[in-house]
Predict the structure.
Amino acid sequence: MTPNENPAADPDQERSSECPAQAASAEPLAAAKTTTSRRDFLKAGGMLSLSSLMGTGALMAQSDDARAAIEWAEHFQGNYRLMTPKEKAEARARLEKRYSAEYAKKVTVDGTEAQPNVLMGYALNVRKCIGCRRCVKACVAENNQSRGPDAGQRIEWIQVLKMERGEFSKEKMNQGYPEGLGIQVGGNAYSPAGAVLEGQYHYEPAAVPEKDATYMPIACMQCEKPPCVKVCPVRTTYREPDGVVVIDYNWCIGCRMCMGACPYWARRFNVANPVLPKEEMNPVTHYLGNRPRMRGVVEKCHWCLQRTRQGRYPACVEVCPVGARKFGNLLDPESEVSLILARKNVFRLKAEMNTFPKFFYFYD
Amino acid sequence: MKKLASNIMILAFCCGMISSAFSAEEVTCFESRKGASEVTKRDLQPGWPNVKCSPKTGAVLWWGDPFDGTVPLGDMPLLASIPAGKAVVKPRAEKLPLLAMCGTACHNGVGPTFVPPTLPKDKKPKPLPTMEGMLPDAKNLQHGRGGIWCLDCHHVTQRNKLVDNFGDPVSFDQPQLLCGKCHGDKLRDWRDGIHGKRIGEWASTGKKRWFLCTECHNPHNVQDGARNRGFIQIEPETPPQLPKGMKNAKHELLHGVSQH
Amino acid sequence: MSFAPDYFRYILKGSMKFYAWMGFLAILSAIALYGFYLQNTEGLIVTGLTSQIHDGLYFANLVFLVGVAAGAVTIVFPAYVHHHKAMHEVTVLGEMLAISAVIMVMLFVFAHMGRPDRLWHMLPYIGIYNLPGSMLGWDVLVLTGYLLLNFVCGFYFLYVKYSGGTINKKFFMPLIYISIVWALSIHTVTAFLISTLAARPMWFHSVMPIRFIVTAFAAGPCLIILAFLTIRKNTKLWIQDEAINLLSLIITWCLGIALFLTLSEVVVELYARTEHANGLYYLMFGLHGLTKLVPWFWGSLIAMIVAFVMFLIPSVRTNYKLLPIASVLGFGGIWVEKGMGLVVPGFIPTPIGEVTEYYPTMIEIMMTIGLWALGFFILTILLKGAIGILLGEVRYGGAAAKPIDVASSGKTAAYESR
């Protein structure tokens, strides 16, 4: 199948672009023979690409027999929030079947809706945090994140920032404007006398808290005016009535606009097929919460929806060894968080962004 | 002969394998304070453990049942508002192995052998090997900077109890009645859930397991040298995975603005 | 309808050079298809994307190519609004470029998405289409509209030329005028896509849309000039000097403004040197010792300045031996500055201060090259077909038909100049 199969063709015709007067149909027979062979060649090429595309499609649909039928129905389900209760129940049942087969244990996918008169809120005592990262690991123990060895396969929703006390460098204390201008001032308009330390995420000391260090964990702030919700082109991420910003993982197209919009870097992307060993999988899941995700979708903290909608604290709150994390109902004046907001010195991160987070930081 | 020897070796090998399989490893991790809050991992239901432990530090990361092994919190002033059974604790007595002996060994439930039992005139602990064996820092108590001593907290005769200002015994399972004497602001915050740790239900009327003072704080060592934090340092968990392509995180140690 | 068979028959006729070029592009495209297969089975882990830097080569190229597509307006506008005769002859070639550029944008979107198999979620009624909230929703709307507009305008014109009729101006001219404005909108909306993200201080300023437009109007014409010079050399269609010179003039102006905007950004950000300038600082000097993009920035800046100076000097601008060099420098410089040099530093550091670097993998690079090759493949086909019709070699009824109405295409001038 080469283009030069036809010896009968006029060699001049091969260079048809340089012969002004030669039209395409000047020598019909020879032309037809020439174009047929080239057409065949291109047809074959077209078939090859078409079949490879189809093959791609087939592979994308997962060729494993046991999951093929379920995944087909799952692929064409609609947006969860717009489903009827019956459709929602079907979607959850499909997922339970799939997860139970995949993880060799009975998995439940709950669909509990938001309870009335509940607006969840969170408070974290920055004076207390010692940077032990147990909240990070407890979250992973509860929420079925991917945890593989390759870069990008380990996802953690909470990041703990270590900030050090800075220092003033003696050499720079009396540096003023450049010499000769007759003005000497302490510190320097061009180069600061104080060393600004921008913080570390990958600190690994033998023991925490380290001397002269403070720590601040950051995860999704569950904003009241979430920038991520606004930019989603398919409305797969949205704010539930009890205040949590959730993601319908089956509807997410993986465009990552929400990740770009979040001022707190709260969202993570599944670059790979998630690696989740069967023994470590938490079988009690919620559709919008900790059910195992798939490649190519965005995930983030959802305040342990599967627990909080059943009335239990999120995993990070329970594990914190210094009791820095508090969680409760902002509409209940007797809840721990409401009392903190009433009594303590409270602030929010990046308040100037006007995102109105419901994750408050405080100190006492 | 050779055949017998090899058969014996195979048998011994198999026995070793089987025995190691049967002696199921007991995984123990600590809930709050290492050495004072251990719990053994077991399955509450198939596939649902009571705790999940951290492979790196041995700390409990997750509770399957937050109320496992708890008893109701005893009566406390100003806590009448909490409905019965909603506040539970894990008894401290289980974690203090010597406690049972304290009331009976050495003191036999009575005080020193003078009648009536009085405190030593100089209120300094006597250098007794048994006491120093339990608390090496007894002579230099890391709590209060020399302002308090043993019998300010421990009952003078009933050594398996703590004591309040009126000389009445306080159970080890209610240390807040004692600690709160001096640390009133912490007591108030603890009572409202702002200080300290609770697991269980988040609703203000929900059932919670409250962590007692001594579950987190070691009362014999709160100064920890010059650190003065109330906690000793603990081992942290592992840092996040490095993003693709980054070989290490050394760049975080370089300062941004000042070094341009 | 003999248009399609005639059209394709003409395209399939070509020299060895043509087939070598198309074969080369086809091989590269096949690599892209393989990369696409890998991404849809293993996930984007085969690329260098991370949660920290989650838009890389694909997004950079798609943003740049929207600009190239918008750059077609530099032909359409003078041709129809200013009635520039030389441009008028070759307007349809600009439309063909716009079509292939938008197709390339869509290809890169497919490569960039985490779940391209779920893109149907964006269709209205079957899925959810978030307008007016989502900028990406607007972007899809304007890009699809632009593709349709150029397709209709371009192929209507070609069909009329092919069948020897006259253009129905009542139908055609409004579409042309709409497409001119629409070209501006596609690139403005793409700029809004990133400039409305308050979390990204490197992008969150109002200079972004105008920067996008001027760099588009500089880079698009650079590519068009290269295409025109190639067409002159390899086909019978002679594109007038006036057309090429007008494009060079447009490039001069737009490159100048683009450099001015770059200068103003550098001055404003680095004067106070707040932490909001960290992204730009990373690009220019490196941050925390990480300097991977620094040579790219300075290289692109030098390329753009050299290109600008070359375009500025009239004797160089009209020297068609030096012009390709200037065009390549301009195109390349803007590709780096607007592509990798804008997209990647926007993510460094993350909004909470983590500094990381982006290391594109070989698969990612090959896929990018392959998708460009596929785009050029389509571009070559479209240009060839259009040239054939413009030259009259593709005519309804073959050579025996009556001569094409050349009045509105100015083709007589093209023939006479040879």
Notes: Chain C touches chain B at residues 45, 48-53, 273, 275, 278, 285, 287-290, 355-359 (CB under 8 Å). The first helix of chain C runs from residue 3 to 12. Chain C has a mean pLDDT of 90.
